[in-house]
Amino acid sequence: EIAIVREDSDTKGRYVATIAGVEGAAEMTFSKASPTLIIVDHTGVPDSMRGMGAAGALARRVIDDARAAGQRIIPLCPFLSSYVARHKDETRDVIS
């Protein structure tokens, strides 16, 4: 099971994903452009977690959280941009 924790500061934030028994942590970072707009700029997954679904889980979490908060996302991160391209129908309401 993938556990995800959100960490926030005034202007930035990140989601950190861990998997029990697996060394390392994956992350997705974002900047807060305004109260209703975030810019996802980076996704990093260590080799120890590759192929385990961590990046996809991070993408779903940031999209779900943005939707719940009434925010939109600018996907500058290449991973999130490609994720959104593959899931247009279920993400178009939150992607700018």
Describe this structure in words.
This protein is of the alpha+beta class and 96 residues long. The protein contains 3 helices and 5 strands; from the N terminus they run ββββαβαα. It has helices at residues 54-69, 78-86, 88-91, and strands at 2-8, 12-19, 26-34, 37-44, 72-75. A 5-stranded mixed β-sheet has the order 1-2-3-4-5. The longest helix is centred in the middle third of the chain and has 16 residues, at 54-69. It is globular, with a radius of gyration of 13 Å. The model has no long low-confidence stretch (mean pLDDT 97).
The largest sheet has its strands arranged as: 1-2-3-4-5
Give the low-pLDDT segments.
none
- The radius of gyration computed from the alpha-carbon positions, rounded to a whole number of angstroms, is 13 Å
Largest sheet: 5 strands, mixed
Order of helices and strands: EEEEHEHH
Number of helices: 3
Strands, total number:
5
- Average pLDDT reading: 97
Q: Which descriptor suits the 3D outline?
A: globular
* Structural class by sheet pairing and helices: alpha+beta
Strand content: 35-45%
- How many angstroms does the end-to-end distance come to? 30 Å
Q: What level of helicity do the residues show? A: 25-40%
